[in-house]
Write the structure tokens for this entry.
Amino acid sequence: LEQLLTRGSVKSGKSRVLEEADEDVINLVAMLFEFMFDDSSVPDVFKALIARLQIPLLKVAVLDKSLFSCAEHPARRLLNDMASAVIGWSPPHDHPRDNLYLCIEQLVQRVLNEFVEDPAIFSQLLTTFSAFIAQERKRSERLERHTRDAEQERLQVEVARQCVAHVLNRRLVGKTLPPSVLQFVQQAWSQVLLVAVLKHGEQSLQWQAALRTLDELIWSVGLREDTEAGRRLLEQLPGLLKALRDGLASAAFDPFSTREFFLRLQAMHVQPLDGEVLVEVREPFILGAGPPGADEPLPHDDPDLLKAKQLRAGTWVALQQHEAGTLRCKLIAIMPPADTYVFVSRAGLKVLEKSAGQLALAFKQGVLHALDDGPLFERALAAVVGNLRQLNRGK
């Protein structure tokens, strides 16, 4: 700094030495960087790079006091943009080869090599870094949209599967049925119901027709041939078989895979229960992976549960994963109907899925915390000014 001021004195013809105001600036910049080093939003790897900017930023502050008052100052914006870009950075296996790390390292080195007293270098570097980040952001936003759409579709399918499993269990559990009919309903007709609810919804005629056909099938195999209903069934059988075949066709089900079932079903109706032992349905049917395990219930006013429910799309969080290190990810959506929180990496790929209860438990255990994505310089300045005001009050 003294060398810098000496050069300035030679150029201007006026003597310039370190004054009390300059010493205040030195102390202020030191406190700003102390805040930055303690800030959890910046990964430790990048704190080491940012630390190398302390002396250049100090030189800027001595030459140009507007660094503290002008939010658009190029040096200040460059620091803020760097901190904003790295908030979602989780360490790869070989971080010195990571594109973002390399870019910031090169920019820092250029500051150290090229900045003497002309702050124009910061404007040039800001333009370079903004172009790099714009490309990265464009790519990640495209992947985020794809991830959000894929998750929405997946969860819709899962909800539909649970709906189908529910209506089947309501009709099957406790019933005594031929094994071939039970297998047909669980493996084939469940898919007809799934397609109907996904394409048309639970209020649709297609869904109601598929349920009605299912009910008629279950009713038909429980009749005895010597009953009046059994004799009436023979008249209704062609319509039932047609409804079954039409339903399978609507779900693009392979007709050859069910040919044997239809032959057996027709034989069953002509000679009920001939050669087929009945089975009682005791276990509930699960379609797909089944519903996720229920969270341990928390009181509705639990502070950590409230903290989880206050998270909004766009919030960055850090999750400590024991041996795997810290995962930094961004909440992109809270998906109905179970309010599933979906998180993505900086690249836009899904890395985490949690319920509000699971997030609350992670907050409670201290392994999860939200990251502050506000401008780093502004947050540091506000914290330092706040601390100084408290000191003055104490005096």
In short: DSSP finds 15 helices and seven strands in the chain. The longest strand covers residues 326-335.
